[in-house]
Structure formats: C-alpha cells, structure tokens
Specification:
Layout (H helix, E strand, L loop, with lengths): L8 H9 L2 H20 L6 H19 L8 H30 L7 H6 L2 E8 L2 H14 L3 E6 L4 E8 L5 H20 L2 H8 L20 E2 L6 E8 L3 E9 L2 E20 L5 E11 L7 E6 L4 E3 L2 E10 L3 E8 L8 E6 L3 E6 L2 E11 L3 E5 L5 E5 L3 E8 L4 E7 L3 E3 L2 E9 L7 E6 L7 H11 L1 H16 L5 H20 L1 H11 L5 H26 L11 H16 L7 E9 L2 E9 L3 H20 L3 E10 L2 E10 L3 H20 L1
Parallel strand pairs: 4-7
Antiparallel strand pairs: 1-26, 2-3, 3-25, 5-24, 6-7, 7-8, 8-9, 10-11, 11-24, 12-13, 12-23, 14-15, 15-18, 16-17, 18-19, 19-21, 20-21, 21-22, 25-26
Helix pairs in contact: 1-4, 2-4, 4-7, 6-16, 7-15, 9-13, 10-11, 11-12, 11-13, 12-13
Amino acid sequence: MNGTSRPSPSSVLFRFLGSMNLAITLLVAVSIASIIGTVLQQNLPYNDYVIKFGPFWFEVFNALGLYDVYGTPWFLVLLGLLLVSTTVCVFRNTPAIIRDMRHFRLDVQTKSLRSFRHHAEWSVKGAPSELADRLGKQLKRDGYRTRQGDYGGNARIVGAMRGSMGRLGYLLSHSAIVIICIGGLMDGNLPLKFADSTGKIRAETRDLPIANVPAKSVIASDSGSFRGTVNIPEGSSADFVYLGLRDGYLVQKLPFEIALDEFRIEHYPTGQPKSYESDLIIFDEELEEPLRKTIAVNHPLVYKGYAIYQSSFSDGGSRMVLQAHSLDNPDTEALRLEGRIGQRLPVETPRGKRTVELIDFKPFNIFPIEEEDGSEGQKNFGPSVIFRLRDASGEALEYVNYMQPVPRGESLFFLSGVRSTPSEPYQYLHLPLDENDSLKRFLRLRAKAMEMNHLQTEVAAQLASMAGSADAELPQKVANSIVELVQTFVAEGIGAVVARVESSAPEAEQDAALKSFVNVIQNTLGAIYVDLLAEEEGKDLGEGVSAADQRFFEDAMNALSLMGSYGSPFVAQLTDFEQVQASGLQITKSPGKDIVYLGCVMLMAGVFFMFYMHHRRLWVRIEEDGENSRILFAGTGHRNRGDFGKEFQRLQRRLKAVSDA
C-alpha cells in the first residue's frame, strides 16, 4: 500500500461529466441530429414519408424518430446531457479562470522568465524601486494593469496584464450553451412527451369533427410550448390548432379565438401565386375590443406569447355544382350534384350506391405547353375539381375533372384524370365534345354500342349485305361474336380485346387477329355513328361525313379504348362554383425562445472575447547588480504569437528608453 486513496465514484462521475471529450462528443451528436432535422422536412403526414422512402426505410427512419428529431426522447436526452456536462465544466473552471484573471503571478521564478520565448535583459543605472515605478508607469500608459512586489533581497518585480477579459470568452460561450440547452428543453415540451409516453394523451388518427375528438387527444390552453397548424375559411374562426404526433394528431386549445375576416391572394400572369395575406380578428375576454391585424408571409402577429404566421392557403369549403352524366343510360337527365369541398354526397347509380367525396378545388391549373413556334410555354387550363368516388365496399378512385374545354389539335375535349392511389400519377382521358361543346354525342354513341338489340340489328344488317346467299347459320354465329367483341371494347377498353386475342389465337397470328378485330369494331361503331349523325337535328349526310365529324369519331374511338379503366358510372362536369378561401396558419408558443436568444447573444460575445481580446502577461524583474541594476523583461500571449512578438519588441524599446532616461 502506498497510502494513496482511490477517488470516490462521485468524483469520478463529476470529472467524466466535466470532461472535454464528453462535451465534444455530445456537441457533435447534437450537430448531426440538427443537420438531419434541417435536411429532412419534419412532421409531415406519414403517407408522404412512405411515398418518398418506401415502406422499408420509412419504418427504419420512423424507429429512429427522424420525422420529429427535435422532439424525440433521444435528442432531448442529448440536450440534457450536454446541459449537465457544460454546467459541470463551467462550475469546475470558473474559480480558476477568475483567479487567473486577477492573479499577477509575482512569484514567478527567474529561471521560468528566462525560458520564455520572448525575453530580454539589460543593465542600467538606478535603484530597483525607482526603476520599477518608472517602468510600471510606462506599462500603464501602454494599456496594461500592473502590480509590484518584492522579489527577495534588493530585487523588485513588476507584473502586468492586458486583455484578461478575453478569459471571460470561455465562461460566456460555455454558459451560452447551458442557456441554449435550457431554452431548447423548454421548447421541447417535456410534459407533452412524458404524457405521451405514459399514455395520458393519445394521438387521434381518425378524421373527426373537432367536437368529436376524444378528450385524451385534446390539450389544455395552459400547456407548454407547441407548434401547430390550422386552416380557417373566410368568415370562420377557431380556438385550437392541430399538432402532428406520429401518424395522428392532437388538438391544442388556445386561450383566445382567431377569426379570418378576409384572405387575399395575388397571382402572376401565369396564374402562379405571387403573394397572399390574411385579415385576422383576435377575440379575447381580456381585450376591451377585438384586435384586428393583417399578417403576411414573414410578417406574423405576436399576441400573448403566441406567434401567428401566414404559412399557406387552401380551399375553405368552396361550393361545387356538378352535372353527373350517366355512362349507362345517357337518355336520362344528368344528375345535379351540389356540395362543398370536404363534404360527402351519396349517389344512386345503375351500378349501385356510390359516394362522391369532394376533396379540393383549384381555380388555376398551369401546365407547360408547346407553342406554335416549337418553344415551350405555359397555359392556364382553368378551374378543376378533385373528388373521390367510393363504392359500397369502401374502395375508391380519385378523379380530377376540368371545367373548361381543353383544345387538342383541331378539337375540343372534356379532360378527366383518374388514379387509384395518391402516389400514382393521373391517367388522363380526353372525351370529345360536339359542336355545342357537349358530351351528348359521345355518350349516345357509347350507349348505342352497349344496347344489345340495337347492336345486334346493326351487325346483322352488315353481315346480310356481305353474306348474300350464304348459309344463314354462319352469319348468326359471326354476328354474336361481333356483338360480344364490340361490347367488350366499349365496356372494358382495348386492353380487354388484346387479352382476348392473346388467350384465343396462336402467338404468330395474334397481330393479324388483333388488326382484324379492330377493323370489325371500327366498322361496326362507324355504322352506328353514321346512324347517330342522321338522327341529329340539322345534319345533312347527303355529301357524306364531314371532316369535323370524322375527327370526332376518331377521337371517340381513342376515348372508348381507354374507358375500361375509368371505373365511374358517370362523367361529372363542373358547371358552377363559388370559391371560398382558407388561410393556413402556423401558431407557435415558445417560452424558451427568448432564453435561446439570450444564449445566442452570450455565445457571440464569448466568441468575440476569445478571438479579439488576447490575454497577455508581462514581467519586469529588477535586481541590483553592483552599481547598476539588471532588468529581466519577459512576456507571453495566449494567441497570435506573431503579433505579440511585435508588441513585445515595441514595449522592450520603450522600456529601455524609460530606464535609460
């Protein structure tokens, strides 16, 4: 046993928490997490992350908490450890730094002074005490604080310091980190995280009216920090915001009510949004009269510690009027559908019950087009409505239908897009319009092609004219086959015809069979189309079918070939609308924000002190040397040794001049 005692566990832990290695490791970890939180957009709906990363990486990133980095437990633990480590560092080093700032170190040894890089010696006449006074005054004139002391025997020493406030940079910068961490933890809403982990609150995943949200998913207005969003339509108000939590949301109550008086938006000539702003009204019992304020992007309203930002805009429940033209029975009157965006409209169709879910309305739709000179331009395709059509089993298709006719070549079309999931692009269907910009002719053509009796009569007439005196059995079999083929094409599209060819004909004969089938379909539908034109009022077919009518038939054939995947029993045309805008507000409460700002100011001040205020020390040792006095001048600087060397040479010349005077 050598008599030395082992350090206690508490002292070992104290040294570990205050170690530079731990502090640097924590800083690097927090920095990496902050980079991830900056690069990866936070708190989006989970479906967006699934679309972007795929199911596998979505689960990996979700397990790591990367979709809400700043609110994850591990990030808050890192901040807490960094807070503790930095606090211990400050606690351990502050007394030593303060002592070093005040201590002139007059007991420094002569051997140590001569070992300094910057030192000089010379002899002059005069007593040590008198020289010490003169040299000390000169150093004061050069901005140094000085102090004298005896050095034993007949020797005197003058200690000088300048820039000692630079040592405060360490304290300010480390204290700033402590303060920033405290502010970050305050804005990390630890009570909410704790309540979530213990099951006191629960994220709601259903799309419910605010009045039906369970109490476990509602947070009182006196809670801590938060960042939430809410969409308020014009003329409406809200006293809550939605907080995203994993794959659901919480409702955060506000201690006041926000009403949207008017929303204004300006557009570029192309129709793209240029700027937008909201006229808000704050209703609060503590106000003598409501507070009115206009907010815009980067110009928020701050009220009672709540910052209200203009973050987005959306539809606020615009009124839609649609005409649903039946694809199964076009002779019936179109069904009028009227509702607001966000509503569900039940519809009875020949194919069973359907529900139209109005999702969104866009007054502008800007798409790139090719100009006549070959250059690329942009065109506004006008208003559109987006809706889902859901059947009784719950399966749904999403549609986007445009209000205005869309030109394509020399013809006009009704444009409708369909997709089965939001992750897919729309598959667009161009339905040709007649001379009256109506779908009536196209719908009648499709209906006549689907009508069994009419189709059988038309096919039989064609075969009779072609068969002559041939056996009657053969034409009837062929007629039935043609009728079935045409109905398959009209009901299921060209894909079903191709599948039929592939299943019935040898591979070597499939191209020829498909070409033959298409010719049969085209001839049959062409005959039906001519009869349809003859029935139209004012049509004269004495000179044959016009070029415009021929184009219509070709466009109709193209549309019919793709109708199999459309999946709707009707075509819904938007005929009228009344737009209502909604302002998207982001509301934040950050009680730690001012604390973080204070920490940032302290950090900048600390960096300034450390880099621009250099701590320099000088010593002048004066000792009797016979009839003269020997002077030993030495100094050291913590930074910028090159600049300090020049300063030392300048001070040496001045001190020599003063000592020789």
